[in-house]
Amino acid sequence: MAWLSDWYLWILSGHIISIIAWMAGMFYLPRLFVYHADTEVGSDKSETFKIMERRLLRAIINPAMTLAWIFGILLVLTPGIVDWAMGWPWVKAALVLAMSGLHGLLSRWRRHFASDRNIHSARFYRLMNEVPTVMMIGIVIMVVTKPF
Questions:
Q1: Within a 10 A sphere around the Cβ of 98, how many other Cβ atoms?
Q2: Domain count of the chain?
């Protein structure tokens, strides 16, 4: 795996770019849900939101998350990058797993909207819209400051 060291900056760049795209989608999709939850089922607005949500998830969020994971795993495998004896990588890993779980929930909620089975309020989605931000802050703090 020594070749990873030679490609480190390219892998890191790919990781950062894919995370930016993933987070942009993770911030925007629940915001779309906020507006979608307040529309009448079967309305033109509702159908437009369904298209927007599906395209956002399939064209941006899913590929970006996949690439973030691929580049992230390559970074972890790069010699000398992560010291697993420290605490911060474990906290970051837990937060990334939680973010991936939230991604799964957003996918499920999108399917519920697509089949006109949404059960959550706009207020619920407003609250959920803040969750990726909190997780992202935790991840960035772990990686940049390495507090423990």
A1: 16
A2: 1
**CB burial of residue 63 (10 Å; 0-12, 13-18, 19+):** middle
Helix intervals (H) in the chain: 3-6, 8-37, 44-55, 62-77, 88-114, 122-128, 131-145
* Residue given tokens 């990058």 in the structure block: 81
Question: What would the pLDDT profile of 4-57 be if each residue is shown by its tens digit?
Answer: 999 999 999 999 999 999 999 999 999 999 999 999 999 999 999 999 999 999
Contact between residue 77 and residue 17 where contact means Cβ atoms under 8 Å apart = no
The token duo for 91 is 């906290």
> 10 Å Cβ neighbour count for 136?
17
Tell me the per-residue pLDDT of 98-138, one tens digit each, with 9 for 90 and over: 999 999 999 999 999 999 999 999 999 999 999 999 999 99
Two tokens, residue 12: 């890191």
* Domain that includes residue 96, residue range: 3-145
Check: CB of residue 68 under 8 Å from CB of residue 18.
Answer: yes
DSSP conformational letter for 7: T
- Output the pTM of the full model: 0.93
